[in-house]
Amino acid sequence: QTVPEELQNGGGFGYVVAFRPFGTVSWMQTVVASPDAARYVFRNESLPPFSPYEVKVGVYNNKGEGSFSPVTVVYSAEEEPTRAPTTVLARSLSASDVEVSWAPPWENQHKGRIQGYEVRCWRHDEKEENAKRIRTVGNQTSTKVSNLRGNALYHLAVRAYNTAGTGPSSAAVNVTTRKPRCQTSLCQVSGQKIYQAQPFYFTFFREALPSVKWNRQSSTSVIETNRTSVELSLPFDEDYIIEIKPFSDGGDGSSSEQIRIPKISNAYARGSGSSTSSACTLSALSTIMISLTARSSL
């Protein structure tokens, strides 16, 4: 920063720039005669990229030299990294997120420092130049890429960067995001009447597996199955509430309406249901069957 005129204390004001390679003893000096000068460029074609130098700046006028600033370490310009990251891996976390990790370039194969990494991600049916770009900072060697399309094939590549630019790209790796979770209510009671030894009928989306949950007083039990029916052995003298919902790699779908199974005292009673009600009565036999029918609306 330049010295204000009121602090120059005389005519003939200028600056003395002293610098030396880091770790050496002898200082090189040059005079910058303009009091408004705020920079000095030292040119040396043999200077290696990103070379550290110690620098201090002093002042002078017609009466003599003043004091120097504290010593600061500065670096010559650097080159962009010359090697690509290695061991790039990607895995799907959800329908919209993937995680990518990598190893830094070998130390003896790149010049200049690495300030971070740039991850590029593009869908299989997109052009690479339109890829989503995410930058990490420092030594971080993994990151999450979000807001992706579900059940889609993506390509990912990584390259290092610094102030000079980005280095070469790694080979692209492929990952497919998980299927999206179902967004609507998937299970509904059909309009068929229900009798003892007759099944309950429900509908659910294809490619989704049903999960059957029932409440017994204050406790909850869950059955997971990839079949379209399940047999439950339940004591007839207690109340039950049954829910059914599908699940897949993308997550759980929405639950059906609750099906209430009230306790009964008549061991030979039978119940009935309708399309407008999810309540029914089960016979006193301790086994019921729940069946599911697929709806191919995905």
Verbal overview:
This protein has 298 residues and is mostly beta strands. It has three domains: 5-75, Immunoglobulins (Immunoglobulin-like); 86-177, Immunoglobulin-like; 200-261, Immunoglobulin-like (Sandwich), CATH 2.60.40. The protein is 0% helix and 42% strand. The chain contains no helices and 21 strands. The protein has strands at residues 14-21, 28-32, 52-61, 64-68, 72-75, 86-92, 98-103, 116-123, 132-135, 142-145, 153-162, 165-166, 173-176, 200-205, 209-216, 219-224, 229-233, 240-248, 251-252, 259-261, 287-295. Strands 1, 2, 3, 4 and 5 form a five-stranded antiparallel beta sheet that branches. Strands 8, 9, 11, 12 and 13 form a five-stranded antiparallel beta sheet that branches. Strands 15, 16, 18, 19 and 20 form a five-stranded antiparallel beta sheet that branches. The relative contact order is 0.12. This is CNTN4 protein. Residues 1-79, 84-180 form the Fibronectin type-III domain. Keywords: Cell adhesion, Cell membrane, Disulfide bond, Glycoprotein, Lipoprotein, Membrane, Repeat, Signal. InterPro entries: FN3_dom (IPR003961), FN3_sf (IPR036116), Ig-like_fold (IPR013783). GO terms for molecular function: cell-cell adhesion mediator activity.
